[in-house]
Every structure is written in C-alpha cells, then in structure tokens.
Specification:
GO terms for molecular function: metallopeptidase activity. Residues 1-17 form the signal peptide. The protein is α/β, with parallel strands linked by helices and 266 residues long. The chain has eight helices and ten strands. The strands form three sheets. The protein has a five-stranded mixed beta sheet, with helices on one face. It has a three-stranded antiparallel beta sheet with strand order 1-2-3, with no helix packed on it. The radius of gyration is 17 Å and the shape is globular. Helix 3 crosses helix 6. It is 29% helix and 15% strand. The chain has one domain (7-265): Collagenase (Catalytic Domain) (3-Layer(aba) Sandwich), CATH 3.40.390.10. Helix 3 links the parallel strand 5 and strand 6.
C-alpha cells in the first residue's frame, strides 16, 4: 500500500533510518519494454514500475517475480472501480492460513495482525487465518521491509497467490513509517490490505488510481490476471474499500462490498 498524502512524513522519517544503514538508496533496475508490455496486457499500471533483486514492484505495493509473468493469462475485461481478483486463488478449501510476524516488530504489529486476522475470520469464510509463533510451516511471513522502501514512498508490499493455489508467502512493512503511527486501526487496515493481495485481491481502483491516490487519471482499458470482476460489487467508485490503492491513513474495516467480494471468492 502506498500513502501519497503522508509520503512527506514517511520520507522525513526514512532519512533518519537510512543514515544508520546506507547513505544512498539503491538504484532502480531498468525494466525492459517487453516486460512493461506484458504488465500492460495483464491490466497492471506500468508507470513507476521498477525491479529489485529480480522482482518487479508494481502499483506501489505489489511484488511480482519477473519469471512469473509468462504464466499469467491476459483477458479482455473492461475495468472501472470494482472489486477484482487474480486468476490464481488460494485452493484446498476449507483452509487455515498460518501467519508469522517477525520478532523484529514491536507488540503493536502483533496486535494489529491479530486484529486483521479477526476481521477475516469474523466473515465465516472457508478461508481462515491463524497467527503462529514460528516461521517454520507458516504460509505468510510478515517482515520489515528493506530500509529503502520508505525512500521510494512504499509503506508495505505483498504478492499474489501461486499457480499451485498457495497464498503469496511474504508481507513487508515499512517500519520507518509505521513505528511512528499510533493508530492501530490504520496499521490493521494496511496488514489486512496486504493479506488481501496474498489471497488474490487486486486494488479496487487499479484502473484509475487517481480515485484514491490523486493526480492524473490512468485507465489502461483491458485487464488480465488480477482484473477479474467479482459479481455483486459496484460499478462505481467505492471510497471505503479496504483494497483501495492508496490510504489516507484511516482505519477501513470491510464494507458491504468488500464482504460481498470475500464471500464470493472464499
């Protein structure tokens, strides 16, 4: 999740953290036109895409291994502001997803993770979550992000389910920002948002990020993997969705449309 309205605060905080670790942010590796074309055909926004250690960082908080692009199937779906899911979803229902939180975090992160898990489990889905105390056997590990995430204005990241039906196995959170956030509800929403990506949810407003992020309108037309409309969700903007691309720093529990989307998929 990327929070543009609070980016200035995050940037100021990250400079302090950066001084303790590195003096210069790593350069963003160039992304080839071929890769950008693949992302566009799959419905991803292709501005501000960069690569680091073989993975692409897309739409501010989505991490995709470049090697996975060829397994994704493009589709012709007209996109507006609705709930969307990826082609790959978590399988093997009913299923318990085990979540590990790194001990590098303070108790606030553990409490927020428990609250995010409670939100999902309260929906009576066939997919439930459980926090575990060991990374061994965990399906999702929540860890501190690299220090340079804050440098680039990234507050958290996650990926999408695998072709074999497992959730994405990692969520990264930017401590240089969230260590200074006192509202546990805001942190809970970010964790729930990244968990949403791990089980196959795209940004509600992925085709028009100006809806939650501000700036110019961006609409690429056809979608693909990660752009499958979820029946029963609205065809107009949804300002309270937990899967909006950018956050205003507030707490956003699941609204009625989010619950419809969760119930439809799981």
């Amino acid at each position: 999740m990327k929070n543009l309205k609070l980016a200035a605060i995050a940037m100021a905080m990250v400079f302090l953290a950066a001084c303790e670790q590195e003096s210069v942010a790593p350069e963003k590796e160039p992304v080839s036109p071929e890769t950008l074309n693949k992302l566009a055909s799959l419905g991803f926004k292709t501005t501000d895409v960069f690569k680091y250690n073989g993975s692409l960082v897309v739409e501010g908080d989505i991490v995709i291994a470049e090697s996975r692009l060829d397994e994704m199937r493009p589709a012709n779906i007209l996109a507006i502001e609705e709930q969307y899911h990826t082609d790959n979803l978590v399988t093997g229902m009913p299923r318990v997803i085990k979540v590990f939180v790194s001990t590098s975090f303070s108790s606030k992160y553990f409490n927020a993770t428990d609250a995010a898990i409670a939100r999902y489990n309260a929906e009576g889905l066939n997919l439930t979550f459980q926090r575990v105390t060991s990374s061994s056997g965990a399906d999702i590990a929540i860890k501190p992000s690299p220090w340079w995430y804050g440098w680039f204005g990234i507050l958290g990241s996650a990926g999408f389910p695998t072709a074999s039906g497992n959730p994405h196995n990692e969520i990264l959170l930017t401590r240089s920002y969230y260590d200074g956030v006192s509202d546990i509800g805001a942190l809970t929403t970010t964790i729930a948002h990244e968990m949403g990506h791990c089980i196959g949810f795209r940004h509600t407003d992925y085709m028009d990020r100006s809806y939650s992020c501000g700036g110019s309108t961006s609409n690429e037309g056809d979608g693909g993997v990660g752009a499958n409309h979820i029946p029963g969700t609205p065809t107009t903007g949804d300002p309270a969705s937990w899967m909006l691309a950018c956050s205003d720093g507030s707490d956003r529990p699941f609204n009625a449309n989010d619950k419809t989307a969760l119930d439809y998929l799981y």
